[in-house]
Amino acid sequence: MDLTGSILVERRHEFTVQVPKRARMLAELAGIINDLAVQVEQAGMSLVGVACGVPGLIDPSTGYLHTSPHLDWHDVDLISAMTEAGCRFEVGFHNSAGVAAHAEVRARRRASQAVSDFVYVTGSSGIGAALVRNHLVEGGARGWAGELGHVLVSGSEARCSCGARGCLETVAARSAILTNAGLSPDAPIGQLFAALRRSDPRAQDAVALAGRGLGEALAAYLNLVDAPLVVLGGLLERLFDNLGPKVHEMIGARVLSHAWAPVGVEPSLAGAHAVSEGAAWLILKDFIGSPDRWCPPPRGTTPYYSVDQTPEVTVV
Ligand SMILES: [Zn+2]
Question: Which residues, by Cβ under 5 Å, contact ligand 1, an ion?
Fold first, then answer.
């Protein structure tokens, strides 16, 4: 992404739901980053930074991943791991739902559909959420808010990747929907859409169960945080026509304020690259806020300092 927010180069590598070993996945990621950096350098541009979104509890200031249940990664120093994997650059790591919510804020501004407050929910191999307040993503005290996928929902006793039973992810994660639809948990998602097109009852029931669980979990969340809109992204956006009405129905039935101020449910505008675009946007935002960190002022000129870097001045 360049300074205007335009995507210059992109590379997509989709892993199956059966997650490969961490070392292999990080080595592939390091290779992609190194290759893309060469393309940027060959185009005569300077690379300001590299950022990634990762599902789970992560400390963005250190890149330390405490846990990512469905990746089955625990206590990983991702910055060191990327160096060991051969990455030539320091990578910033952030929660994937949080960075996707940043991309949604930008996409809505571009489309002149800006909304100041909403709950963004992304679904794929897991379910993550982020609360946006006044156009800013609120990550909670440690940046770990929004683990909607591990909220208890009714109708499931299945064991979740986190170890608990009955989490939302046991009915609404990609592998759960595929399994409940009578498909392999690793099946291409196109098989689910094909089954829905031919009105396969198992596929319809699986998506309805996911929508019901999602609506139930979101209703609990909305009763606590008071947001006027829910935005469904990732796989949930692709399934919006099938599960959106069920989510809306559950919210209408269970959110106390809904009768006075109905909560909207809309598909995401951020598109399939929401996580990578949102992560890149964080780098860009940092660069625009403190350009002197990358571009030292010419010798003899007064340096520019951002607010948080302003040196202390003692008046005598
Ligand atoms: Zn769980």
Answer: 150, 160, 162, 164, 167
